[in-house]
């Protein structure tokens, strides 16, 4: 499965900042390679409607489409993958139900990273690299924590948490396959330009 290259600029929606569909479109125009639909506490019906739109848009731009937490929404909207945290559906169960989906695991420590890889995750979202107002209670692992995970893990790793245009180079130099970003892109005045600028920096480091 050669999805590794498409993880490099992984943009995550956030309705607290912008409408999911509009911001997805703008991020894709600016060069996002993956989009994740992340909605906490919305009606399932609404999530499915939005997910179907994001599926259409990501297909048009040849980008991947992931769903946060919810395997049911991922299957119902024909997503490429689902992102599961330590308290979501266990990875082996998700693989049994949906053998063709890419399973991403959200991990917040080396122990969780090793466990997720062993259980069969296809890639990791590892963080938070830096403190972030987007997820206040999150554990911060720092660049050093990220490096430790990368030393021990073979599957692709996407870094997440507090990544912006200023610090992204430092993150990319650790050897991660990509960066997952909410506020520095979705919270920007011009989402398309913020994505474009980020993509340019990424292309300078990840060849
Ligand atoms: N998981 C770990 S940190 C984080 C999530 C969802 C928030 C990332 O958002 P931002 O705004 O890019 O820091
Ligand atoms: Mg999650």
TrEMBL record:
Xref: InterPro entries: Aldolase_TIM, ThiamineP_synth_sf, ThiamineP_synth_TenI, TMP_synthase
Catalytic activity: 4-methyl-5-(2-phosphooxyethyl)-thiazole + 4-amino-2-methyl-5-(diphosphooxymethyl)pyrimidine + H(+) = thiamine phosphate + diphosphate; 2-[(2R,5Z)-2-carboxy-4-methylthiazol-5(2H)-ylidene]ethyl phosphate + 4-amino-2-methyl-5-(diphosphooxymethyl)pyrimidine + 2 H(+) = thiamine phosphate + CO2 + diphosphate; 2-(2-carboxy-4-methylthiazol-5-yl)ethyl phosphate + 4-amino-2-methyl-5-(diphosphooxymethyl)pyrimidine + 2 H(+) = thiamine phosphate + CO2 + diphosphate
Protein's pathway: Cofactor biosynthesis; thiamine diphosphate biosynthesis; thiamine phosphate from 4-amino-2-methyl-5-diphosphomethylpyrimidine and 4-methyl-5-(2-phosphoethyl)-thiazole: step 1/1
GO CC terms in record: cytoplasm
GO MF terms held by the record: magnesium ion binding; thiamine-phosphate diphosphorylase activity
Keyword Transmembrane: no
EC number(s) recorded for this UniProt protein: 2.5.1.3
Record text on cofactor binding: Binds 1 Mg(2+) ion per subunit.
Cofactor(s) needed for function: Mg(2+)
GO BP terms: thiamine biosynthetic process; thiamine diphosphate biosynthetic process
Domain Thiamine phosphate synthase/TenI: 9-185
Residues engaged in binding 2-[(2R,5Z)-2-carboxy-4-methylthiazol-5(2H)-ylidene]ethyl phosphate: 132-134, 162, 182-183
NCBIfam families, A to Z: thiE (TIGR00693)
Family according to the record: Belongs to the thiamine-phosphate synthase family.
Name of the molecule in the record: Thiamine-phosphate synthase
Gene responsible for this protein: thiE
């Amino acid at each position: 499965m050669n999805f590794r290259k498409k993880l490099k600029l992984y943009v995550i929606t956030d309705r607290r900042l912008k409408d999911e569909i509009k911001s997805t479109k703008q991020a894709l125009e600016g060069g996002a390679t993956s989009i994740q639909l992340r909605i906490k506490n919305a009606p399932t019906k609404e999530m499915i409607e939005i997910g179907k739109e994001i599926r259409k848009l990501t297909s048009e731009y040849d980008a991947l489409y992931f769903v946060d937490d919810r395997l049911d929404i991922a299957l119902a909207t024909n997503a490429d993958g689902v992102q599961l945290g330590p308290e979501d559906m266990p990875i082996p169960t998700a693989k049994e139900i949906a053998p063709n989906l890419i399973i991403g695991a959200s991990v917040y420590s080396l122990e969780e990273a090793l466990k997720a890889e062993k259980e069969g995750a296809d890639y990791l979202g590892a963080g938070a690299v830096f403190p972030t107002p987007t997820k206040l209670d999150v554990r911060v692992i720092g660049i050093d924590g990220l490096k430790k995970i990368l030393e021990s893990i073979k599957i692709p790793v996407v870094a997440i948490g507090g990544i912006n245009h200023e610090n992204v180079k430092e993150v990319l130099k650790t050897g991660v396959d990509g960066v997952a970003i909410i506020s520095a892109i979705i919270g920007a005045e011009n989402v398309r330009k913020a994505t474009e600028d980020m993509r340019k920096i990424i292309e300078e480091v990840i060849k």
